[in-house]
Amino acid sequence: MNTTKKILIYPTDLLIINPVADYGVLLAKNLNVPALLIDFENVPIIMVPGADMGAVLTSPAQMNIEDVRAQADSRLEAMQKMAQKIYARTNYEVGIGFPEAQLLEKAQEQETILLVIGQTSELNFINKWFGTFETRVAEHADCPVLVLPEDISWTPIKHIFYIMDLEEDNLDRILILSKVAKRLGASIEILAISDDIDEEKNNAFEQKMHDLKQVAQNDDITSHLSNYDRLDETAEKFMKMSQANWLAFQKKDSHFLEQLFSNNQFKKMILQSDFPVFVF
């Protein structure tokens, strides 16, 4: 079995000039791992008259799936040829099915180390609660996910701004982020957030930062502590000061009702960030 680590790149569209594809391929080049451009085509469901039921679904043969696949294959092959001018270790793959489910399945593969997708939706009343394509993929993928804003262009990754919950278990997660940062030559700046900061919380913060550095074996880490209710203001201030290239945070391990009544920072950060968002 081929266990070569790779980065999956799901372009926002299949235009040959594609910011998501270009960024993902350059990231793979900088990490020195293969890049795989992927696309999943959704065959439209057509209702046709039926003798007994009034309407029945057409069969896959009638949908001409192979024509759909061939068109996508042609466009993705052209994108691959452009990408290979940047990085020769770029391949592509076309599948049929619902993109969200297919991407989550691909993210389960052992060799997938990162999934790169584009930011396509805006925060409105409906998706504020139930999520959008990119927030659901970022939240449920088994591998880290990098969500790119529209019209992103590549710049070397020198500084990653990581927002973490002081009360959560972060020690195993910081290893993932630290490995990526080291391979990119990037420093990490941590903003730890908590409620009702007092001397006890400050002591816990100092201890956790010490432990994180030791576990990560990375001294190129700086840190700050802030209240939840000042998160937006504090994060924006520090990100501008540090000239961060990525915003990073870990996905929450919570069930549906907890997500429903949470502060929705997860979705808001992904959908409204002007920075690439690394979710791990």
Question: Please, could you describe this protein's structure?
Answer:
A 10-stranded mixed sheet has the order 5-2-1-6-7-12-11-8-9-10, with helices on both faces. The chain contains 11 helices and 12 strands. With 280 residues, it is α/β, with parallel strands linked by helices. The longest helix is centred in the first third of the chain and has 20 residues, at 65-84. The chain has 2 domains: 6-148, 3-Layer(aba) Sandwich (Rossmann fold), CATH 3.40.50; 159-279, Rossmann fold (3-Layer(aba) Sandwich), CATH 3.40.50. The protein is elongated. The chain has helices at 19-31, 60-63, 65-84, 99-107, 125-130, 133-140, 171-184, 199-216, 231-242, 256-260, 265-272, and strands spanning 6-10, 35-41, 47-48, 56-57, 90-96, 112-118, 145-148, 159-165, 187-194, 221-227, 246-249, 277-279.
List the helices and strands and how they pair.
Blueprint: E1 6-10, H1 19-31, E2 35-41, E3 47-48, E4 56-57, H2 60-63, H3 65-84, E5 90-96, H4 99-107, E6 112-118, H5 125-130, H6 133-140, E7 145-148, E8 159-165, H7 171-184, E9 187-194, H8 199-216, E10 221-227, H9 231-242, E11 246-249, H10 256-260, H11 265-272, E12 277-279
Parallel strand pairs: 1-2, 1-6, 2-5, 6-7, 8-9, 8-11, 9-10, 11-12
Antiparallel strand pairs: 3-4, 7-12
Within the CATH hierarchy, at the fold level, what is the topology of the largest domain? Rossmann fold
Gyration radius from CA atoms, angstroms: 21 Å
Mean pLDDT: 81
Q: Class of the largest domain, according to the CATH hierarchy?
A: Alpha Beta
Number of domains: 2
CATH architecture of the largest domain: 3-Layer(aba) Sandwich
Which ranges are low-confidence, i.e. pLDDT below 50, for 5 or more consecutive residues?
254-261
User: Whole-Å distance between the termini?
Assistant: 26 Å
Strand content: 15-25%
- Count the helices. How many? 11
Order of helices and strands: EHEEEHHEHEHHEEHEHEHEHHE
